[in-house]
Design a protein that fits this description.
alpha+beta, six-stranded antiparallel beta sheet, three-stranded antiparallel beta sheet, globular
Length: 171
């Protein structure tokens, strides 16, 4: 099985979506929830910003998961997955965390969805900063400590918007 955790590699792919502007527009039509009001407390957990509900069962969500499994040639028993959109404004600060739960193998994917996102608003993984770029995917083992590098914006239209994906496999 593919394992960035063993190799310490963070995989990056530019131009992940064929039409990222449509994905962004579609994302902005969704309802975003804070921790107090999110219908799935596990999904938002400690996340300091706003997040949509899961999109796993939508045609879009299923395609994203299938595309990632194919792109990275991941084999194994997928036991859980999440696709959602996450939004943070300029008031949100770094919060280092991991996405490893229950001893399973967990992968995290982030696609940046701001057309003019500053490069320094990417993601820090194990103390290394990865720059942000519109429609760029970064994919890594969720056991690595990580956080957003910086956020920006004041409202839904101009704040940091990413698609977040979690893939959980049986150990």
């Amino acid at each position: 099985m593919f394992s960035p955790f063993e190799t310490g590699v963070v995989f990056q792919k530019e131009n992940f979506f064929d039409n990222p502007h449509l994905v962004r527009l579609w994302a902005l039509t969704h309802k975003f929830y804070d921790r107090k009001h999110h219908p799935n407390k596990k999904l938002i957990s400690y996340f300091p910003g706003l997040r949509t509900n899961q999109l796993n069962q939508s045609r879009f969500g299923k395609k994203v998961i299938d595309d990632m499994l194919e792109l990275f040639q991941i084999h194994g028993k997928l036991i859980d997955s999440t696709v959602c959109f996450s939004l943070t404004d300029g008031s949100v600060r770094q919060q280092v965390h991991t996405d490893d739960e229950y001893g399973h193998i967990n992968y995290t994917g982030i696609v940046y969805l701001n057309p003019s996102i500053p490069e320094d608003c990417g993601t820090i993984i194990s103390s290394k900063q990865f720059s942000s770029k519109f429609n760029k995917l970064i994919f890594f083992d969720g056991k690595h400590p990580h956080t957003m590098a910086k956020s920006f914006g004041t409202n839904k239209l101009n704040s940091r918007l990413v698609m977040t994906v979690y893939l959980q496999f049986e150990s």
